[in-house]
Amino acid sequence: MPTVTELYRYPIKSHGSEALEAVTLTAGATIAYDRRWAVANDRATKVDGTAWAPCANFTRGAAHPSLMAVKARMHDDGDTITLSHPDRKDFTFQPDDDRQLTGFLAWVRPLMDPARTMPNRIVRVDGRGMTDTDYPSISINSRASLRALGDAAGADLSPLRFRANIWIDDLEPWEEFNWVGKDISIGDTRLHIEERIMRCKATMSNPDTGQQDVDTLKTLRTHWGHTDFGVYARVVQGGTIRPGDIPVVHS
Question: What structural domains does the chain harbor?
């Protein structure tokens, strides 16, 4: 029977994952604190802190593989984050405090490829997370599809390569693609599945090391003729989701 196995959020876009024991969703919103902050790069042109902006304006794992090994922990105050990385000492700061920006940049820049765009400032848009979609989305991935991809690639792939919010197991591989255009209920919530997720080079990096070691995109193209993995959803009805909950698809 399909079952929710893991829940995650990513407080700073592309700068660390955080596992959760439960999430409470609100209609029309992302998971609380998911992509609440994003790091604008030095070529950003459409970021003023008042509205959503495309992902090209931000430093991301697609351009800087080492970022994929960052982990994040949100403190109880909702304002403080501790970042960790295998090559750096843990760093605790408050992203909204401009006085702490210099410290953050000093911590993160050694992880970046100097030939690519570099971090410049941290931005936040009140009321929504800076998702890759121009609507507040929840990403859902399948463990069965992950195993199928790993088998094709000849590698044991960590789910953290794909930065999903919700992982579900005991589906048929790629069954989640059949949900597009439908609603699903999980726990007390109801979500509408909007579209498949087209993946980028970030998924090629090992989240333990930050090194590119598996060409996930080539594997997807070779075996399935696309680079899609997972689906995006909108929250239609709020509620709480926990590991062990059973998703129900509505025709």
Answer: 3-29+133-250 (2.40.33.20), 37-124 (no CATH)
